[in-house]
TrEMBL record, chain A:
Name the UniProt record assigns to this protein: Monosaccharide ABC transporter ATP-binding protein (CUT2 family)
Organism, as annotated: Roseiarcus fermentans
Pfam families attached to this UniProt entry: ABC_tran
SMART domains: AAA (SM00382)
Matches recorded under InterPro entries: AAA+_ATPase, ABC_carbohydrate_import_ATPase, ABC_transporter-like_ATP-bd, ABC_transporter-like_CS, P-loop_NTPase
All copies of domain ABC transporter, residue ranges: 11-247, 258-506
Family that this chain belongs to: Belongs to the ABC transporter superfamily.
Keywords (A to Z) from UniProt: ATP-binding, Nucleotide-binding, Repeat, Sugar transport, Transport
Gene3D superfamilies: P-loop containing nucleotide triphosphate hydrolases
Automatic annotation (TrEMBL), chain B:
Transmembrane domains' residue ranges: 12-29, 49-67, 123-140, 160-179, 215-235, 247-278, 298-316
InterPro entries: ABC_transp_permease (IPR001851)
Stored Pfam families: BPD_transp_2
Protein name: Monosaccharide ABC transporter membrane protein (CUT2 family)
Predominant localisation class: membrane
Alphabetic keyword roster: Cell membrane, Membrane, Transmembrane, Transmembrane helix
GO molecular function: transmembrane transporter activity
Cellular localisation: Cell membrane
Organism: Roseiarcus fermentans
GO annotation, cellular component aspect: plasma membrane
Keyword presence, Membrane: yes
Membrane topology classification: Multi-pass membrane protein
Length: 517, 326
């Protein structure tokens, strides 16, 4: 199909903006989608792709701008509205109900009924037809969704979307859980849908998939569309060029010059694997070193940190701390003085803080053994250490007795970090610690990380913000599909190299890959 | 796997509770001094049906991952109300029955409204409303008393065709008229979906609020049917706090024994009915084996604990331990 056959767009977004607090997710974004086309959306983390989809699917409402369907302006209050208008979205987080059967799920929005009751035979036919259309005949319509492996669930999700007879189908990383054979089948289906006149929006970070599938591509950067071009007219290197260019949002402390490698690194990880989410991950972190984890969101970075911290069951491989093999079975074991690990979690509200409890109590939680004698809390000692931590991190709280939930987001994040520093860890794992906090606090955290490293800690730092990898880290491990795709050292850590390796592109980007350590 | 094996797997919990009940009841009846007689069955049925109806009421809400601690109070309130208005002529009594059912449904609607619009937790909401419903029952019947339209009471607590207890026929009729249509309707499907994963239900564009509301209303309605039936059995009304409290707790036990997941999203009222009958039979078994009735609570507790442990076995397979907390 050539681009000259392109009709007038059926969906048009004009000047759409969306902010979350002080963070702008979309800024004056424009997009036009035509029937009978597969339109790919590209962009790095935080470029605005997921916000764009959420707006189209009716999950969030835009602050500004207009969306027109067939030249009529529309506003979606809920996913049901978008679905009625013919926009169906296949989300990355699945929308299937685990305790219902495959057929129940496929027909969930509008099940066929007879005398007010669901007609199971008709539903079965609908489900079988949809599964066949999605190329998933091997899935039994009566199986419960929770009993299916992830790749089958993804196929059911696609079948469910097709059963709704969409006009515009949005696929958000819909192939990430699929096997290669499934991907091939899904592509056949998607091309057929295009030929039937559907408009498809295809969000993916897999460049070869986009090359095979898309008719058109739009690149997003910093919440805006920066380029739209017919697929195949730009090289991978040119695409990367379009995607980079994020302005540095903060000032970083200077990095130390070359270091000498020690014989026994503080943290040494060899061939770590867990289910299909982590594959033979090997790396080390030296004393005084800040190592970044990069790559697109959701490639196994979070699982890697959880595996090291003893949260996951069935982890294989070897972890050595200061030369000694360890296998922490729980966070409690991981934080013990023998291992001395701390994990600053991703979501401070659920995994970091007890929001209704006081600042002081929250700060002591990870170090209760340090502030108690024979199992009894020593209030004086606790108070002293708490104040010490509040000074160290400049936590601005009226009193140590006010609930931590009353603090600002930035100060809450500092409490989470301080809480772990009170346990005096030597290995500090951080899971995207600066997401959604203000620039001033971010800078304080960068300074602190460098200070901790200089004081002898080993720091492993996962961030979705490339500028932090560039500004903060001595080395950066780029993760793709559960494995380390590339190791960048010192000056090699550039946005171009990070984006290219995050997308698993082999094209010449001017940087030589560092050897896996 | 073929179709019937999937069907079997999905109704396993219900079938197990049916099998357990049949086995227990067979032991009970064959050891009963009077043997497997129509009288033995009728007495057991009248006791069992009360709890079975309350357990069915509880099931509606538990399916949506909620819990209704006011079912016992609605049960008692309906009993007191029925002893006052299901009296007099046949026509008057019929209107009274409708009045009781409407009141029960209204109680459920209040619960649903507070949970959905007020966004309060079901457990707190229903403790509070339960106390209010019980207070209304006390105002209505400060001392035990009242009356009931006897022809209807006798017909529903007697026997059909001289052998089948009429109460069981009534229970089956309620299940057929209320549970089956609901569980197979689009709204009932949405209630299951909400209980299994509220986020997925929302993202699929399901009517989350009306699904929950329907579950609470039907819970109140079914609890009021149980209250009506209590009036038919006792010919009077009594605002007994003990009855209300124990029926609420036993309804949860029955639901669990019947294979309804307290996490929501799976199980059926049919299972809960047999769970209730099973729970009642435990007490009867102790009686025929001449065990001191003092053992009954302890024995019921042990059975419940074993049933819950079987349901929790899946947690050992979780590989990301953070999932245990979500």
């Amino acid at each position: 199909m050539t681009e000259s056959e392109q009709g007038p767009p059926i969906l048009r977004m004009e000047g759409v903006s969306k902010r979350y607090g002080g963070v702008r997710a979309l800024e004056n974004a424009n997009l036009a989608v035509s029937a009978g086309r597969i339109h790919a959306i590209l962009g790095e983390n935080g470029a605005g792709k997921s916000t764009l989809i959420k707006i189209l699917a009716g999950v969030v409402a835009p602050d500004e701008g207009r969306i027109a369907l067939d030249d009529r302006e529309v506003a979606f209050g809920a996913p049901a509205d978008a679905s009625r208008a013919g926009i169906v979205c296949i989300f990355q987080e699945l929308s299937l109900v685990p305790d219902l059967s495959v057929a129940d799920n496929i027909a969930i929005v509008n099940p066929p009924t007879r005398f007010g009751m669901i007609d199971r035979r008709a539903q079965r036919r609908v489900a079988e037809a949809a599964l066949a259309r999605a190329g998933a005949e091997d899935v039994h319509p009566m199986a419960l969704v929770k009993d299916l492996p992830l790749s089958r669930r993804q196929m059911v999700e696609i079948a469910k979307a097709l059963a709704r007879a969409p006009r515009i189908l949005i696929l958000d990383e819909a192939t990430s859980a699929l096997t290669a054979a499934d991907v091939a089948k899904v592509f056949v289906v998607l091309k057929r849908l295009r030929d039937e006149g559907l408009a498809l929006l295809y969000i993916s970070h897999r460049m070869h998939e986009i090359a095979e599938l898309a008719d058109e591509c739009t690149v997003f950067r910093n919440g805006s569309n920066v380029a739209t071009y017919p697929a195949g007219t730009k090289s991978d290197a040119e695409v990367v060029e379009l995607m980079i260019g994020r302005e540095l949002s903060a000032v970083f402390p200077p990095k130390p010059r070359q270091r000498t490698a020690s014989a026994t690194p503080l943290l040494d990880v060899r061939r770590l694997s867990w289910t299909n989410r982590l594959r033979d991950v090997s790396f080390h972190v030296e004393t005084g070193e800040v190592v970044g984890l990069g790559g697109l969101d959701g490639q196994g970075q979070r699982e890697l940190l959880l595996a090291l911290f003893g949260v996951l069951r069935g982890v294989t491989g070897e972890v050595r701390v200061a030369g000694r093999a360890v296998a922490p079975a729980s966070p409690h074991a991981a934080k013990s003085t023998a291992i001395g690990m701390a994990l600053i979690p991703e979501d401070r509200k659920t995994e970091g803080l007890m929001l209704p409890m006081s600042v002081g109590a929250n700060l002591s939680f990870a170090a209760l053994d340090r502030v108690s004698r024979a199992g009894v809390l020593d209030r004086d000692r606790e108070g002293k250490l708490v104040r010490q931590m509040m000074d160290l991190l400049a936590i601005r709280a009226g009193s140590i007795d006010i609930p931590v939930g009353a603090l600002s987001g930035g100060n809450q994040q500092k409490v989470v970090i301080a809480k772990w520093l009170m346990a005096e860890p030597r290995i500090i794992l951080l899971n995207d610690p600066t997401r959604g906090i203000d620039v001033a606090t971010k800078q304080e955290i960068y300074q602190l990380l460098r200070k901790l490293a200089d004081a002898g800690a080993a720091i492993l730092f996962y961030t979705t913000d490339y500028s932090e990898l560039i500004g903060c880290c001595d080395r950066a491990l780029v993760i793709y599909d559960g494995a380390i795709r590339r190791v960048l050292v010192g000056e090699e850590i550039t946005e171009r190299a990070l984006v290219a390796s995050a997308l698993n592109i082999d094209s010449d980007t001017g940087v030589v890959a560092g050897g896996a350590s | 796997m073929s179709d019937w094996r999937y069907a079997l797997a999905q109704n396993r919990a219900t079938l197990i509770s049916v099998a357990f009940f049949v086995a227990m009841f067979a032991i009970y009846a064959s050891n009963h001094p009077a043997g497997f007689s129509a009288n033995v069955v009728e007495t057991a049925a009248n006791k069992g049906v009360l709890l079975a109806l309350v357990a069915m009421a509880q099931t509606f809400v538990v399916i949506t991952a909620g819990i209704d601690l006011s079912v016992g109070s609605v049960f008692v309130l309906s009993n007191c109300l029925a002893s006052a208005i299901v009296v007099g002529s046949a026509g008057h009594a019929a209107l009274g029955v409708l009045g009781v059912i409407a009141t029960g449904a209204a109680c459920g609607a209040v619960n649903g409204l507070i949970v959905i619009v007020g966004r309060l937790q079901p457990i707190v909401t229903t403790i509070a409303t339960g106390a209010i419903f019980y207070g209304l029952a006390l105002l209505l019947r400060p001392t035990p008393g009242g009356d009931v339209y006897e022809p209807l009471a006798d017909a529903l607590t007697g026997r059909v065709f001289t052998v089948v207890p009429a109460s069981l026929v009534a229970l089956a009729a309620v299940a057929l008229a209320v549970w089956i249509p609901y569980s197979r309707s689009a709204l009932g499907r949405a209630a299951y979906a909400v209980g299994s994963s509220e986020a997925a239900a929302f993202m699929s564009g399901l009517p989350v609020a009306s699904a929950k509301a329907s579950a609470y209303v039907l819970s109140g309605l079914t609890a009021s049917l149980a209250g009506l039936f209590l009036t038919f059995v006792t010919y009077s009304g009594e605002a007994s706090a003990q009855t209300g409290g124990s029926y609420t707790l036993y309804s949860i036990a029955a639901v669990v024994l019947g294979g309804v997941s307290l996490y929501g999203g799976s199980g059926s009222a049919i299972g809960a009915i047999f769970g209730a009958l099973m729970f009642r039979t435990i007490g009867d078994l102790l009686f025929v084996f001449n065990l001191d009735p003092l053992w009954q609570p302890l024995f019921q507790g042990v059975v419940l604990l074993v049933a819950v442990s079987l349901g929790a076995a899946r947690l050992f397979r979780v590989r990301n331990r953070l999932e245990l907390f979500s």
